[in-house]
Amino acid sequence: MALSYKARKRWSLFVLLVGFPLYIILAWGILSRLNLWQLPLVVEFLIYVFFGVAWIFPLKPIFKGVGQPDPDAKD
């Protein structure tokens, strides 16, 4: 089921205002429990990069085209 433009816009706002802060808290909690200081710096960096970009891949369809004008709007 494809989401309408309005629905995607609302969901993207919800994800950015509610979901993303919750994800940050979750990722911070997980990463704080790991002993990252024992790992090489490159591995630690890759773990932080993974957690930094992993959230966007499942949510990409919601954000796609939200910044564009509404395609269903009448001129």
Short note summarizing the structure:
It comes from Antarctobacter heliothermus. The chain has helices spanning about 5-35, 40-55, 55-65.
Strand content: under 5%
What is the string of helix and strand elements?
HHH
- Molecular shape: elongated
Q: Report the major sheet.
A: none
Mean pLDDT: 88
Describe this structure in words.
- This protein is mainly alpha-helical.
- The chain is elongated and about 60 Å long.
- The protein has three helices and no strands.
- The model has no long low-confidence stretch (mean pLDDT 88).
- It has one domain.
State the main characteristics.
about 80 residues; mainly alpha; 3 helices; about 0% strand; elongated
List strands and helices in order, with pairings.
Blueprint: H1 5-33, H2 41-53, H3 56-63
